[in-house]
Amino acid sequence: MKILVPGNVPFDSAPLLDDPADVVVPYVMRDAIPDEHADADVLVTWASPARVLEDAARRLTRLRWVQTLTAGPDAVLAAGFAPGVVVSSGRGLHDGTVAEHTLALVLATVRRIDRSLASQRSHDWDRGLGKEQASAEAGPTYTLDGARVTIWGFGSIAERLAPLLAAMGARVAGVASTAGERAGYPVVDYAGLSALLPETDVLISLLPATPATRHALDAATLALLPPHARFVNAGRGATVDEGALVAALRSGALAGAALDVTEVEPLPAASPLWDAPNLIITPHVAGGRPQHAKEFLTAQLRAWKQTGPGSLQNLVAR
């Protein structure tokens, strides 16, 4: 079995080499798979661009399984791999780092770090910001203490993030496909979102990119939030109607936002997001490198070899 793995992701291939027929081949993620490896059985991918994945889908005709190390499999699913190719995701490998970065974005927009940085660049000691944040009337506009935070897409990342927010005094609720309680936090289904948003001070999206979630945050949804609310997206950019978001920021219908993801990446220089007021942008860096990739990949490949695809973690429905 020939297994292609990204050359810059730590991976211990030793457990797989007991069988002389197994070979693990590192490849450069930004380059097309070399012709001599087009006979691969397994492709492990992480940050390969769409053109590389689409090329692999066309040329790797013996491929049986694609293991992506990203939490969301949307890029792999969009590449056009044959229907018989098994796909599994890296869900869980980025939970800690994405939760950490999301918390940083929430704090940055709530505490107006963007405004402080702008003042620093202009050598301006912004006394007005301090007075506003000290005002009792400002309430949840400038603090998480007592703020009502809604996490849209309440999965494993949200389960890591929610206690961090709660430790700072936030009242956390979630939105998922089914209502109930998860990890001790109340969760409503999508039908309950419209009742929850008018009471939300900070809306966090961790939604995956699927046909059902495309532009889930649109003008109508934004209009349900109170004007002092802030929005943070660490899920996928395709879930946001960026034109509606810019319009809400410009009109004051939304107090602020922070994005780690955009619909087109890298974000084009002409995008109005760059100059939207009260908006913080980071360049899709929340996840970083997959954590514990070596252990995860070794376990996945052992499971495949011993009992087949049915025993893989994070199998993706196709």
Could you write a compact summary of the structure shown?
It contains ten helices and 13 strands.
User: What is the ordering of alpha helices and beta strands?
Assistant: EEEHEHEHHHEHEEEHEHEHEEH
Structural class: alpha/beta
Major sheet description: 8 strands, mixed
Quickly give the CATH architecture of the largest domain: 3-Layer(aba) Sandwich
User: What's the pLDDT, averaged over the residues?
Assistant: 93
Question: Distance between the terminal alpha carbons, to the nearest Å?
Answer: 24 Å
Beta-strand proportion: 15-25%
Structural notes for this entry:
The protein is of the alpha/beta class. It folds into 2 domains: 2-93 and 289-311, NAD(P)-binding Rossmann-like Domain (Rossmann fold, 3-Layer(aba) Sandwich); 95-281, NAD(P)-binding Rossmann-like Domain (Rossmann fold, 3-Layer(aba) Sandwich), CATH 3.40.50.720. It is built from 10 helices and 13 strands. Helix 3 packs across helix 6. The longest helix is centred in the first third of the chain and has 16 residues, at 95-110. The protein is elongated, with a radius of gyration of 22 Å. The two termini are 24 Å apart.
